[in-house]
Amino acid sequence: MTRTGLVLLASSLGLVGCKKSAEQQPSEPPAGDPKAAESRVDPRLASPDGADGGAADPHAGIDPHGGTPDPHGGAPDPHGGAPDPHGGGMAGASGGGGRVAEKTPDGRAILGPVTALVPKGWQEKPTSSGMRTAQWMVPGKAGEAELVVYYFGPGGAGGADANLERWIGQFEQPDGSPSASKAKTAKKTVGALAVTTVEVTGRYVAAMSPGAPEKNDKPDHMLLGAIVETMNGPYYFKMVGPKETMTGAKKQFTAFIDSLKPGAK
Description:
Protein Transport Mog1p, Chain A; alpha+beta; eight-stranded antiparallel β-sheet; 11 strands
């Protein structure tokens, strides 16, 4: 049979069309194939529970510790200030802001599983995020300072050492030296509670909010902090303000921490 006859025979049987179709098939599964889509997802972009990672907070969707965050958010603070802290929403921070601390019959502030005697003159403010258990404004001639109590859940937003490092890292020194070389840390026991304290001064340059590129720029500031280990996990007490105000309130802050004792919760 001639070549032309073979081509006509193959065309009539559909063989030429099959070859062309096979050559045009894509080498990858179609875009709508769920398995193909799954293979293209970088697993590092998903949080362990499959939820949105939020503002890069490992403690549950910064505002979290969303979260925050806060901590030392936080973070939120944890510390940071947030979530601060600590910058930003963290796991274990329930609800939103707008809360004030409940009081015992004798007037002590209830802070989760502990209570504390609040110094006279401190002005309690409604909390501004779910990472915050309570917050106060502390008056002073050089300007107000703020004390925030953070709680990030039993995991504690990384533990005491990580949050101390975060807090200290929120300050810069005028001579360019590392703030860690100037910070003062100590450990003590208040009743049955293990407490780690920190004091650091310098230019306060913490992020304006957890994960935000904008930073504070406040020279001659001070931070007084305490991390209190409770039956429910650590609570973070972070007080920041102008150095003159903070120096004048240092005894009150120490007395506030030393007044802590286990409560009914």
